[in-house]
């Protein structure tokens, strides 16, 4: 079952409006957008470290252009209806606002929220459970998963690409060779490593020394983040950059709480049908038309080590105002819900990470903390959207 809440939809619309305005101020040139993307992937936007490109996959204009085309091409799914960009929508922070968890070919259900690809080139572990470590190989899972793009094999896609004349030219330009599985990964990796979004108001203040870049409540929120809230214990901030993640796996109590709820469904749930209008609907009616919700044991599903049950990778907090909904299953619609969860000490299940404890934040302190989190949004998102949409996707 997926969730859609009116406040969440309104917030998403406002975020879209901001992105649309930013995009209108940064129109990518069809001829040289990839040169701009290449320069960005070889630089370090304020607040971010340099991207570490693989020694055997140095970026180029041709690779980035090919990677972008692959990312948006619906022909790469079994029935030519799904592309990578349909779960990682540029205008929605390269994730998906509308659904708590993703859907694949023919509406098939996934149990996790689509993570954003913003700044993914800085990560060493990918997916919520860390099942892959490189962009060059990460794409194979979604490409062949039956509930995602549903191809019968990776080789099936390679054969398809070698039959398409435009791809033959692009692979030759990028690699002086025809399409192959490793070259698909290299091109997708090169494009995704160019999708960088730093230089946020926080960066301009904290790393750039511009005291006027953020308001007083943001500065107070930062003190809570690094002090009373102890958020920075897992969402790391370095001396000259901040990825806001330790890339480790933690049991915050949330996953186990959600599984307890899964095993003990309510008899009814509130459904908001209009502003201020909420109806109680029998859960059995929703269950009758929904796929059964699966258990999600997190990192355990990768390692099968009992110690990894309920653990998920620490997400980066950059640009999270434009990447709702939140948590690995997209259950929380707003930042205030997330803050309240951690302020109350998570689920307070005994096995959760001891750093998750009641914080005792006041209402003002929680609002200041949210203001700080909002200051992590990059002003460069519009440019990334414009580059992503520089030409129509391949849908035929």
Textual characterization of the structure:
There is one protein chain. The protein is mainly α and 396 residues long. It has two domains: 6-197 and 379-388, Cytochrome c-like domain (Cytochrome Bc1 Complex, Chain D, domain 2), CATH 1.10.760.10; 201-253 and 294-374, Orthogonal Bundle (Cytochrome Bc1 Complex, Chain D, domain 2). The protein is 37% helix and 4% strand. The protein has helices at 6-24, 33-41, 61-72, 135-138, 140-144, 154-163, 165-175, 181-192, 201-206, 216-226, 254-263, 283-288, 300-303, 335-343, 363-374, 381-388, and strands at residues 249-250, 268-274, 277-282, 312-313. The strands form two sheets. Strands 1-4 form a two-stranded antiparallel ribbon. It has a two-stranded antiparallel sheet with strand order 2-3. A hairpin with a 2-residue loop joins strand 2 (268-274) and strand 3 (277-282). Helix 14 (335-343) crosses helix 15. The radius of gyration is 21 Å and the shape is globular. The relative contact order is 0.18. Residues 1-10 and 16-24 have low confidence and may be disordered. Residues 1-22 form the signal peptide. This is Cytochrome c peroxidase. Its main location: periplasm. Residues 216-377 form the Cytochrome c domain. It comes from Pseudovibrio ascidiaceicola.
């Amino acid at each position: 079952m997926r969730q859609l809440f009116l406040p969440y939809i309104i917030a998403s619309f406002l975020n879209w409006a901001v992105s649309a305005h930013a995009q209108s101020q940064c129109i990518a040139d069809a001829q040289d957008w990839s040169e701009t993307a290449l320069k960005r992937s070889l630089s370090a936007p304020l607040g971010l470290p340099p991207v570490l490109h693989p020694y055997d996959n140095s970026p180029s204009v041709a690779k980035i252009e090919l990677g972008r085309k692959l990312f948006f091409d619906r022909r790469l799914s079994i029935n030519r209806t799904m592309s990578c960009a349909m779960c990682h929508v540029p205008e929605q922070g390269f994730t998906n606002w509308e659904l708590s968890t993703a859907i694949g070919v023919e509406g098939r259900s996934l149990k996790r929220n689509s993570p954003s690809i913003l700044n993914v080139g800085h990560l060493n572990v990918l997916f919520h459970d860390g099942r892959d470590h490189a962009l060059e190989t990460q794409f194979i899972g979604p490409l062949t998963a039956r509930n995602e793009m549903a191809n019968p094999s990776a080789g099936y896609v390679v054969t398809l690409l070698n039959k398409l004349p435009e791809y033959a030219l692009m692979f030759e330009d990028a690699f002086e060779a025809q399409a192959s599985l490793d070259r698909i990964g290299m091109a997708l990796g090169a494009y995704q490593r160019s999708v960088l979004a730093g230089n946020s108001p926080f960066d301009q203040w904290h790393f750039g020394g511009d005291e006027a870049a953020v308001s007083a409540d943001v500065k107070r929120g930062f003190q809570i983040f690094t002090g009373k809230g102890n958020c920075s214990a897992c969402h790391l901030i370095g001396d000259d950059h901040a990825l806001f993640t330790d890339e480790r796996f933690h049991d915050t109590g949330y996953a186990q709480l959600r599984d307890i709820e899964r095993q003990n469904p309510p008899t009814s749930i509130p459904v908001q049908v209009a502003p201020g209008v909420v109806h109680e609907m029998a859960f059995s009616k929703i269950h009758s038309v929904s796929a059964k919700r699966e258990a999600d044991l997190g990192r355990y599903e990768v390692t099968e080590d009992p110690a990894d049950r309920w653990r998920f990778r620490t997400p980066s907090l950059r640009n999270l105002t434009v990447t709702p909904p939140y948590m690995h299953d997209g259950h929380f619609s707003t930042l205030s819900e997330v803050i309240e969860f951690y302020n109350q000490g998570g689920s307070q299940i005994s096995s959760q990470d001891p750093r998750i404890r009641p914080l005792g934040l006041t209402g003002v302190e929680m609002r200041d903390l949210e203001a700080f989190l909002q200051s992590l949004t990059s002003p460069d998102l519009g440019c990334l959207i414009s580059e992503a949409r520089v030409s129509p996707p391949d849908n035929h």
